[in-house]
Design brief:
The complex is a heterodimer.
Chain A: E1 4-6, E2 13-15, E3 23-26, E4 33-34, H1 41-61, E5 65-69, E6 72-76, H2 78-87, H3 91-118, H4 125-157, E7 163-166, H5 168-186, H6 196-202
Antiparallel strand pairs in A: 1-2, 3-4, 5-6, 5-7
Chain B: H1 6-11, E1 19-20, H2 24-31, H3 33-52, E2 53-61, E3 73-76, E4 79-89, E5 96-103, E6 115-119, E7 122-124, E8 127-129, H4 132-136, E9 139-143, E10 152-154, E11 168-174, E12 185-188, E13 191-201, E14 208-214, E15 227-230, E16 235-239, E17 243-247, H5 251-256, E18 258-262, E19 276-280
Parallel strand pairs in B: 2-10, 3-9, 11-19, 12-18, 15-19
Antiparallel strand pairs in B: 2-5, 3-4, 4-5, 6-9, 7-8, 11-14, 12-13, 13-14, 15-18, 16-17
Classes of the chains: A alpha+beta, B alpha/beta.
Chain lengths: ~200, ~325
């Protein structure tokens, strides 16, 4: 097994000897934790993406915004917002919001779950690789969703002075965004190609 | 560590810095709390919805103009208690089937005897109502009944006349409606003590029957020998000795009409429900000077000292 590790913080490549159980190696230069693989990477990824999947449903069912205007009551879910934009012939923005707010979080969550579940399965290396590549492609687009959301809310609700409250959907939606972020952060892509023996070694 | 240089490290780096730290077992189970928390949040959302959701009721309106799907609210006592979910024409094409979702706290409104009506802006002489609805749109108002639970209602065309418990209902016969309307006030010494509920032509078309209601606390004022007269409009009289005389009960009666009444100094038995009185066009001069002693139980009335501070109004 290799004993040379690059520090994730400062990039220093160094040799690491045997680390006894219950202890941790520190980088020679920056004194930060030095690991072969991110600790508990698989469990963390699985747990975070599972929580994100659970909250994905309420975030789309429940209204993100409830607006009150002199007794007029309107509730806006993401899907209804997209529908409204579509009716207003804003096809591009409607499509963009659909892709970044509904499609890409779903793909990302399912992809991360798939990888973390199949991590031990033999012959799935190529599937895992492809899934990971897709996640890497759609990941930057996820950053757009919060930004686009604020625009869509403004587009739907502007023009009337109204009291706008965040609905229950907005909490789960924020949680989904945060959880998928944490899931990708805690995932170590090197695990995709590790053999079971290597996994045991790096644990 | 002391002879650390930039180049020296990259070429010859082999440090091992073990440091005891126990954490693995603790972290592992802690992580499972995250999906559990997510499930708990979902359960809470569903539970809250379940609590907040009442029955889906169906109301049939002859005219549902102004109602909007997923928007129009049902209100009771100023609180929003439901929302219209769908509007559909009934199969016979004569009315509109309105489906509305009541809030969980308003489930007891879905009872037999509950009346639903649509509040629209209305401008009448003497009263402007539903002004808010010009801006906010129509809403459905409800007056709760107390029958058995039901989910199907026939909507009323307009606000139903409130059944006031304990109020005295009397009938006034007039030769002409003149300026009287529904909700025209009935005055006793200039104080409103009741109103006209409904009017219709008599069955033989010889008179106008006015259904009037006297509020509970003022009911004892109406005796079998009380006299009612039309107080609306302007009473204009010109006499040789006292010049011109103009009188009107109040500015309001000038516009919306009104009825006044007086009870003789020797009051007869209190009038019963359904008692019939004649409505005179003008009062006798003597009627206005009648000042009988009638004991009332008025809310918020300071206890009076009987003899000491009684003034002779005459």
């Amino acid at each position: 097994m290799d004993t040379v590790v690059a520090c994730e913080t400062c990039g220093l490549v160094q040799e690491v000897g045997a680390v006894p159980k219950g202890s941790v190696a520190l980088c020679a230069r920056c004194r930060f934790h030095l690991v072969h693989r991110k600790p508990n990477s698989r469990l963390r990824t699985f747990v975070f993406s599972l929580a994100a999947l659970i909250l994905y449903f309420p975030s789309n069912i429940y209204p993100l915004v409830t607006a009150e205007y002199h007794g007029l009551h309107s509730e806006t879910t993401i899907l209804r917002g997209i529908h409204t934009l579509f009716q207003e012939r804003q096809y591009f923005i409607a499509g963009l919001i659909f892709c970044t707010s509904i499609l890409s979080p779903f793909l990302k969550i399912v992809g991360l779950l798939l990888i973390s579940i199949t991590l031990d399965w033999k012959g799935w290396e190529r599937t895992r690789t492809w899934t990971y590549r897709i996640i890497r492609i759609i990941d930057p687009w996820n950053m757009l969703e919060v930004f686009l959301l604020s625009i869509s809310v403004a587009m739907i609700e502007m023009g009337r002075v109204a009291t706008v409250h965040p609905g229950p959907g907005v909490f789960s939606f924020t949680a989904v965004v945060a959880l998928t972020l944490l899931a990708t952060l805690s995932f170590d892509p090197r695990l995709i190609w590790d053999s079971p023996a290597q996994k045991k070694h790096y644990e | 560590m002391s002879d650390r240089t930039e180049t020296g490290e990259t070429t010859k780096a082999s440090h091992e810095l073990p440091k005891a730290e126990i954490r693995k077992t603790r972290r592992a189970w802690w992580l499972w709390l995250i999906p559990l928390g997510a499930i708990a949040l979902c359960v809470w959302f569903v539970y809250r919805d379940y609590i907040a959701t009442g029955p889906l009721i169906t109301i049939y309106f002859g005219d549902a103009s102004g109602l909007e799907q997923n928007n129009t609210q049902i209100r009771y006592l100023g609180a929003t208690v439901g929302q219209v979910k769908s509007l559909e024409l009934t199969r016979d094409g004569h009315s509109v089937e309105v489906k509305a979702r009541l809030a969980g706290s308003a489930t007891q409104l879905a009872r037999e005897g509950s009346v639903f009506w649509i509040v629209r802006p209305e401008v009448k002489l003497g009263a402007i109502s539903g002004l808010r609805t010009i801006v906010s749109g129509e809403y459905i108002a409800v007056r709760p009944g107390n029958g058995a639970r039901t989910n199907i209602f026939a909507g009323a065309a307009r606000e139903p006349v409130a059944q006031e418990p304990g109020a005295l209902n009397i009938i006034l016969l007039a030769s002409e409606l003149s300026s009287l309307q529904e909700q025209s006030a009935i005055y006793y010494r200039g104080i409103q003590v009741g109103e006209i509920v409904k009017y219709q032509l008599g069955s033989e078309a010889q008179d106008v029957r006015l259904q009037a209601r006297i509020h509970k606390e003022y009911a004892p004022l109406v005796r079998e020998n009380s006299k009612f007269w039309n107080a609306g409009g302007i009473d204009f009289s010109f006499g040789l000795f006292h010049g011109a005389e103009i009188s009107a009960e109040s500015a309001k009666t000038l516009l919306s009409g009104g009825i006044a009444f007086a009870t003789p100094p020797e009051p007869a038995k209190p009038a019963t429900d359904g008692a019939v009185f004649r409505l005179y066009e003008k009062p006798d001069d003597a009627w206005k000077n009648w000042m009988p002693v009638i004991h009332l139980k008025l809310p918020d009335q300071a206890p009076e000292n009987t003899e000491s501070n009684q003034l002779d109004l005459k």
